[in-house]
From TrEMBL:
Source taxon at top rank: Bacteria
Region (Disordered): 247-276, 364-383
Compositional bias segments (type: Low complexity): 366-376
Keywords: Signal
Name of this protein: PKD domain-containing protein
Signal peptide: 1-33
Comp. bias (Basic residues): 250-260
The keyword Phosphoprotein belongs to this UniProt entry's keyword annotation: no
Keyword Coiled coil (UniProt): no
Amino acid sequence: MKSTNVRRFAAAGVGAAMLTTGLIGLSATPASASTTDWRTPKAFVTAPEATPKHYVGACPATVSFESKIKVRVKGTTKVAYQWLHGDGSKSKVKVVTVRGHGVKTITVKEDATFSRSIRGWQALRVLAPFKATTAKTHFSVACAPKRAKKPAVAKAFVDVENFHGVCTPSRRVMAEGVIRVSRPTSVTYRWIHNGKVVDWGRTKVWGAKKVSYSFAPGRSHRGWVKLDIVHPRRAKGDADSYVVNCVRPGGHHKPGKPHHPRPEHPKPRLPKPAPATTAQVAGISVSPDNSSCVGTKGPRVNFTGRISISGPGTFSYRWTANGVSKSGSMRVNHAGTYPVSFSIDGDPHGSKTYGTVTLEVTSPNASSASESFSFSCPQPKDA
């Protein structure tokens, strides 16, 4: 809706000129046409073009209007115009000075910004050097409703350590909390110790954030600490209980009347997770198989290993002996010791088979055992 002074640009060799402003552009027809084609009308104006003509989306939205005014110029001509709006209002009268000879085309523009849905029209009125009003150009703006942000949800988790030791003012019992949020938001929280608000805080949380509160143990007692979320409204706090056991220097219990406050919402104690299943090699037994003693070939050797596992699960193992290896796995339903076997052929070049065998547990953990062996084929009895 702003206009500035018109600037003139000449295009060499084509006899054309362009006058532009932020919202007004001027282009000229060839000079020969302006001097010989007297059938060209002295004045002409087009109906505005709306871009976009029908808008649907987020608001505020801007619609641009553009119209062309064609006038015959001989020397200097002033063109005055104003925009007419569908709500009955009008723009200020704007004047453009055009210089030159021939038929000139002026492009005029206006932008309108709308913050709500509307159906309207726009027209252009030329006041000089001739008077004319274009047809109405209708347009519409449909503002899509803004998507409401999902309310932020916050949840607190707190853990208070038990204390056993000399209770001095310098010693502290630590309560550690974590605040988690569904989306970045400012959180206001407070610490409640045995029913009394003892501390406040406000912090910006992206995802999760740690907060803490500490207090002097004082005397032997039982108590609870709660991390309460004040804002946002959709929030859930958490509480944890603790035990303070004060002793005198040297390990003697410090007398004092135990205090047993009852928490508002005691946190249920979750069962400790079961320890991970482990497996280990319990032993290896070695035995020769003399049935393979044929000619100069050494005896075949059989190996039996025992693997102990602490619970149900799957364990993997690997045998290695004299450059020969074998891998395997076994799934069991309960703890116990399970056998695994392996064997190697006898030495084809001698009557003695010897070396070292290794049994390794490769999963769920690592364990291994090795055993040396040496066996010879029995000497044949004299006839």
